[in-house]
Amino acid sequence: MLLLESLYDGPEPATEKLELDFGYRTKSRLRARLKTGEEVGLFLERGTVLRGGQKLRAKDGRIVEVVSAPEDLLEARCDGAFALARAAYHLGNRHVAVQIGDGWLRIQADHVLEHMLVGLGAEVRAVSAPFEPETGAYAHGHQHPGDGSGARIHMMSA
């Protein structure tokens, strides 16, 4: 099994790809497979959140690129900036991980949050896309995925 124990930000190009959805990119200990099928063990500093395009250095020196896998999301669009900001506020008030785009918000699929967004006047549609939510106001955060309400980002003080 190939061991991945550190982030890599150097100029060397990746020779391997590791595709993971957001829930798995929030785990610091993980067993997975490269796109080639080779098994890998991920052992990173706790609290690390991997982003699409980041690189990892394998124990054998290979460079592995993290690829954000498409997943089931909800995309909310609103009539005007005020309505979009209001929707974002209500999602943030629930500590929901939100990806912000030009005129839209994306969250992991959740029927309760979908109902809330529609109630706020948003047009909501299901999409399949990589999920890259905002990390929040602080650099070091961690996730509590799998609690039934979508990924949540809580900031920890050092």
TrEMBL record:
Compartment(s): Cytoplasm
GO terms under biological process: protein folding; protein-containing complex assembly; urea metabolic process
This protein's UniProt keywords: Chaperone, Cytoplasm, Nickel
Domain of life, source organism: Bacteria
A Gene Ontology molecular function term of the record: unfolded protein binding
UreE urease accessory N-terminal domain span: 3-64
Family matches, as SMART domains: UreE_N
Pfam family, one: UreE_C
The UniProt record lists the keyword Acetylation: no
Gene Ontology CC annotations of this record: cytoplasm
Membrane spanning stretches: none
HAMAP family assigned to the protein according to its UniProt record, in alphabetical order: UreE
Family: Belongs to the UreE family.
Function: Involved in urease metallocenter assembly. Binds nickel. Probably functions as a nickel donor during metallocenter assembly.
Protein name listed in UniProt: Urease accessory protein UreE
Source taxonomy: Bacteria, Pseudomonadati, Pseudomonadota, Betaproteobacteria, Rhodocyclales
